[in-house]
Amino acid sequence: MTAVQAYSYASPSTLDGSRLGLSTSGGRALSGPQARPRFFSGLVTEAAPAAAGLLALSDVAMTRYHQPRPGWTRDPVVTCDGTRLRMESFSACGGVYARLDLAALDGDVLDRGTTNVDVNGPLREALARVGGKDPLHLGVGADEMTVTTLDGAVVEKKVPLPARWLRGFAEVQVIASGFDLRAELTGPHAVRFLRSLPRAAGATVWAVPSGRDLRVQSAPAAGGVCLAGAARVATLLPLLRFAKALRVYGPAGDSTASVWELELPGMRYTLAVSPRPSRGFSGEGAVLDHLATDEAAGDADLLGPLLAFDPAIEVGALADASGLSPARVRAALTQLGTAGRVGYDLHEAAYFHRELPYDRDQVAELNPRLTSARALVAGGAVRLDGDRAEVTTSGGVRRVDVKDGSCTCEWWWDHHGSRGPCKHVLAARIAARVAIEVPA
Question: Is the Cβ–Cβ distance between 24 and 9 less than 8 Å?
Answer without folding.
Answer: yes
